[in-house]
Queue: 2 jobs
Job 1
Amino acid sequence: MICLMILISVAPLFSFAEKTTESLLRFEQPILITSAGQSADVQIGGVLAKRAGLIATLSKNATHQELADKKTLVLVIGVSMKGLGAAGLDLDQEKSRVRGLIEEAQRKRIPLLCFHLGGEARRGELSDQMIEACLPYAQMVIVVKSGNKDGLFTQICAQKNIPLLEVDRTADVQKSLGDIFPKN
Amino acid sequence: MVVAAHPEAVAAGLNTLKKGGNAVDAAIATAFALNAAEPFASGIGGGGFMIIYLAKEKKVTVVNFREKAPAEATPTMYLDKGKIQETWRKSHGLAVGVPGSLAGCAYALEKYGTMNLENVLESAIQIAERGIPVSEIFSEINKDEYEKILQNAGESSVYLADGLPYEPGDIYRNPELANTFRHLITHGWRDFYAGEIGGKIIEAVQRNGGIMKCEDLARYSPIEQAPLIGTYKDYTLYTIQPPGSGGLHIIQLLNIIAHWPVGKWGFNSIEYIHHLSEAFRFVFADKVRYLSDPDFIPVPIQYLLSKDYATQIANKIVPGHLQKSYPYGIFDKQLIDKENTSHLGVMDNLGNIVSLTQSINDFFGSGIVPDGKGFLLNNEMADFSPQPDSVNSPGPNKRPVSSMAPLILFKGERPFLVLGSPGGTRIFTSLTQIILNIIEFEMSLDEAIEAPRFFTYSSEGVGKSLFIESRIPTHILRSLEKIGHAINVRGAYDNYFGGAQGILIDRDKKILIGGADSRRDGVGAGY
């Protein structure tokens, strides 16, 4: 297993191009999975992690205290006005919460894994703002291909040398998770 | 001609007409087919309203099959230690109203149709078994409602593909629904209310914390009512009675708008959007203040529909300024619901017409599915106000207020436009705009339906943001902002504003024109 410190330091050495999971980074458990935008996609992330047999805590509105005993932070990106409304948040409050989590993860040297699972339908001005706010801090990005038709993820990952993994279908993320999270 | 929110449902209606069925037969076949092809928006676990025009008798009648509250419902049922429990209203057994769709369709079929239940369920069974390709819209909605489906229907539900949301292009099948329909053919539709299926409904509702009992189901019956009637210039509008509020509010709005030179102002001009927005805010204040189930609390319908009352409101609305407040009920806060519901329209070769709007309320309803039965139960109880002192608070056997507004517009003595839409509280504001697009701006039906829309409301006397489709030019938005409207720009073709379906009868050209909204998966077809 690649230790966490190495993982963070080698991340910039990976090229941005879409990779096979064999050549990708390895992340450690337990995982904190949270939303960046309060779309229901975070639930999909939770189910995929469970199916991959990972030790994960799903917390839609996670605060930085919840990172205390975690070794990986997963942000499932996608803004939903309905979801924000249900959570009693506006977009600025949600951005602030997510920013706090990222800062805490960086302080604790916890790697960040970003998912975009909602495809083309989960893009748009607000989701794109969140993507642009989160992706530059990620150690790796997994995106369902139809959500990257315009190449936004490819472009940001290229600029920041972040490994990007594209999958055809949401269900394919489960296998990728199995590959990048070695069994404890 | 049939218009509906899914091509397979339209085909079901059309096949029924081709086999000799009348408009009522075809409408009901279409409604059942929508349960199979567009399961997230309507179905036998829900309710609705239909307005029927019988050409030979020149009679218009309404069948109200809105859900009812269980007998144990109380005004405080959504409060826990004084705090409103939103989950109880939306995705809990307490959210489920006694379903009316099947009883309403069966009533209309037996009284005004020519076919039997087996005939009108045939296409729906085929669709449920054969399956349909999942559209972008279906997939998007399935993802949005994933948490509720996962929680209440479970990972193995037919509403998920191996426990995950359907992707566009996947095939969605529902063999359980096909079996339920077959069971109804064999055992009769009353089995749903007092038989095996009814038992499964009660079991599912109570397992999820609900209070519905077998007696509630057994007691349910639809109501046949006279239509509500309004006029605008040379046109007469026939629509549904409260607790369906949408039709009443369209008539109110048209009465107010009749005071203004909207044709001269121009389509989606600053003056037009400003004045209509102010009218919407006044009408929303009335909705909260007065609208209820008239079987329990009197609704001052004649007062609200009077031209004098409209004049009073029109006189309060001034160019270039917003009202400081809009009269409102002291009891209630206007709650804005999500996108939902489905509308269909049918006209047969004898001139009979059905305009039918049905719903399970939120997309995928409560998410609760009776075991193995393949249909979703509604969360229509969320249309009641959770505030105990509201006129629209829950009560035993009471029907919640709905924004639905299936309508038929007559020009002189003859039907001219059959129209309706889903869209929650946007239904009546969107339908008003479509009617004006046709009458005042001389648009074709398709142009009128596709044209960019806007919406606003008031709550507790305060005007809310103006929600507006992004196709409306920026300079118009900036001018509206200068007046004081807070602008909230939505998508270009946003299903937040509904998904209207219409049939326009062009008697000069002797043609029927079907119009369906690209904000949903709707189509129209005829032969």
Job 2
Amino acid sequence: MTLKYDPTLKYAETDEWARAEGDIVVVGISDYAQDALSDIVYVELPEVGDEVSAGDAVATVESVKAASDILTPVSGEIVEVNEALDDAPEVINEDPYGAWIFKVKASDLSELDKLMDAAAYEAFNATREH
Amino acid sequence: MKYDDYIYDLSRPGRTGVDLPAPDVPETPIPAEFLRDELPLPELSLPQVARHYLRLSQKNYAVDKGFYPLGSCTMKYNPKVNEWAARLPGFAAIHPLQDPATVQGAMGLMYDLQQMIAEIAGFDAVSLQPAAGAHGEFTGVLIMRAAQLARGETQRHKILVPDSAHGTNPASTAMAGFTAVQIPSDADGNVDIEALKGALDDEVIGIMITNPNTLGLFESHLVEVARLVHEAGGLVYGDGAYLNAIMGIVRPGDLGIDVMHFNLHKTFSTPHGGGGPGSGPVGVTAELAEFLPGPVVALSDEGDEYIWKQPAQSIGRMKSFHGNFGVMVKAYTYIKMHGADGLRQVSEMAVLNANYMQARILQMGDYPIPYGHRHCMHETVAQGKISGADDVHTLDIAKRLIDYDYHPPTIYFPLIVHEALMIEPTETEDKETLDGFLETLDRIADEARTHPDLLHEAPVNAPTRRLDEVRAARNPILVRLPSTTVTS
Amino acid sequence: MRYIPHTEAERRSMMEVIGIQDIDELFADVPADVRYPQLDLPQPMTEMEVMRELDMMAAENANLREFASFLGAGAYNHFVPAIVDTVISRGEFYTAYTPYQPEISQGTLQAAFEYQSMVAALTGMEVVNASHYDGATAVAEAAIMAVNVLRHKRRTIVVSPSLHPQYRQVLRTYTQGMEMKIVGDELDGNDFHALIDLCDKDTALVIVQNPDFLGQLHTPQEMQDLADAVHAKGALLAVATDPIALGLLKPPGDYGADIVTAEGHVLGNSVSFGGPYLGIFAFRKKYVRKSSGRLVGETIDVDGKKGYVLTLSTREQHIRREKATSNICSNQALNALAAAAYLAAMGKHGLRKVAELSWHKAHYAAQQIAQLDGYEVVGDKPFFKEFVVKCPRPVAEINQYLLEEYGIIGGYDLSQEYPGLGDAMLLCVTEMNAREEIDDLVTALGEAAAPMIRLEVTL
């Protein structure tokens, strides 16, 4: 099955996507990630106000058989979480690039430069075991 | 109404079960403020209770019903004399805090069991207190921690764990406050020695190793692994879940293991009970004996009676009282009936059965066995990858086995084997049973190629079809009471 | 031989298929110098012989079917109706494994779900897990859970000194590597105000026991006030309780507990020298994802038929590994089944009667003993099934007299754990103690006090 890649986003090797809106970075997980997890049953969200460093596991996305840590690609403060995921976590399966998980007020936007663009991420995925 | 309906649906107001005598003493008023308003328990008659549970039981598969080749679990026959023994009033109706003088028989049984496990596995001291395998593992890691701290090694905080390890290994590590560092396996399924050397430093508490490992293979370099770890100042923890492969063949203590847990409910035939109770004793070298959880049973100085003894630097108490005594009685009975030769035959036949299955599966050619170039031990790990049937997975094969009246093998473990199908026959299975299962595996492979829907729709012959686990996890219904249903 | 079915011919035929001549070829990977050790074990016995030996070993123990007992302290002699053993002796139940293939494990799963529901009713709590190992480890798991719920930002546990001593020991053993602090039981007595005063911004959980280790009961109002005060400090409240008491008394769910634990063997399991027992563990549904231990949930199959499955497994070790909420891999399934069968057989009426009998008999015993010279019944609160008696001489001497002269197993010697009480014993009276036994106990205690009785304690 063909996986989707949103060309406007940046991607981490750990399958998070990120988008900057001013100094707020919006984070979710890619189509590759939701496909690997299959039916998502629960999302554990961070708390608004949490201070985080790039690479920290700040959220968890769970299916029946697996739990995936979601790492923040940037350091800063959690300013918003997508509470709609409490009642309907499955929207991540349906629309991974629309269903954001959390937003970070970034202390250093240059950390985003470490991420890949859509083409590079797609190439990266080709090398991975499915 | 059906007798296997949900128990509250069988309830009728005012119906009573067991009768109790009227008080034979004057009554003391109970202050009203303490009384509960309602007690929403079911109201059934005893005949209903009997039918309800009998019908429920008939929906279960069990070892007493048929072949149960669950890898890693050692589903051997559960001897009935063990059940008889545990129910003797002199064992079942004694209180753990009774004066030792009144329970010397029970303490003697525990003492003998401590000694016999130590002898079988090659250790110097054993505590029977941990309640289960995972509990024994946690105990073992705490012992390693205590021993290192006692040596003044306060900088050690990492535990090496092979990538093939059972999930309880890293979980126990985390509970003790340590970090699990994964060590890869090599092409022969052994711990990668070079990777191990690279990971050893003075921050390593030790290694948790399973032998035979979860690939069903004997760790050929275990002596070398133990030597390297010891040289680096670390300790070697052995996960004894697979002891059924090596009793009378080799003693883990002789291979360099310092501390090990045992599963009485696997190796020593005590029943699994639908998920418990188990018992997870821990054995240690003489150097670590003082750290065992206590109390353990010891002989008095005069040697004429059994006493409770708290090891000198004990990590503490792991559970209330002495451990799962009712389970110990069953293991004791089993060991007494087998003796040294009997236990060796148990292991030899367990390994023979597994190798027979491995050889036949390889001959059939339907299912790959990644490490089939080696003799396996008590279990073999195949893969549910049938050539010519790419959309059939291990899960489907497992569910189809149910339609043929078998319990499936363990699936998707160990994690390092893709589509794993882990088969442990145990020694108590006869050749006809193994052959029947092998023929069925072959037949299912054919079905996978020609009628894959039979596998995808399976099971069709079980009390239920496939159950919606996604629904159960998204909106869990964990309790159902008459007036409310509690959902999370 | 024993349970091994292979004939010699079958062995040989299997070896041919494998391609070996000798069984030892299968063990070639074992270093030769340690292969085939000579195990020094007793000669094997046949079933007939081992039954004889076990009969003799069992007969060396003074068992509670033959001796009247007033010993409690966390392990109890309660009535077990015969039907319970019938249920747990079904081979389909006791020789089954963990229900990982739910389609062929509906017996185990439905029975476990029913256990969860009945215990939820009993404790007044929203969710119950499929059990921990025992009442002590359940307390330790409660502490770990509270720290998880509060996201590791608070790491102090305040425990009451009247929480069972063994539970407090296990709590400390479990948490020794977890950078958590355990405080509170260095205080005297069971004063809730003192415990509240210890609560600060680092307190995750307050743990009390009701009825407490010494049998004392706090009123539901006192418990509610405690819960409110604990919550006001930002912490959770765990209450360890007695399931038999809950047949009669207000459950912790009604007075603000966040987590409820109990030693559940009192429901349909024999006293069995301390195990296997049953760790009852109940909690508020909003904390379920931080809980440990197995959970059985209701669902439907592809045909829409109701069924049961293990659920929320992502909390557990086989998926989360080092991030699991606990390393626990099993539950006390058969003990929980016994408890469920017990609750089903006793029902709401039977369980209440058991609790009432225990209440009346214990109070009768206390009243009679209070009239004896030299003895004092301690405690200013109402109690359930256990009470403290101050004795005129060491408890060991009194118990020896009781045993030798009357065949009575006396109460628990408190002098080790509660030295402030002096020579005191914890006496337990349940529905299993007939009036004659209680009257004999009183007579025996009276005699044992007399200074003329010289006893040589041979312990």
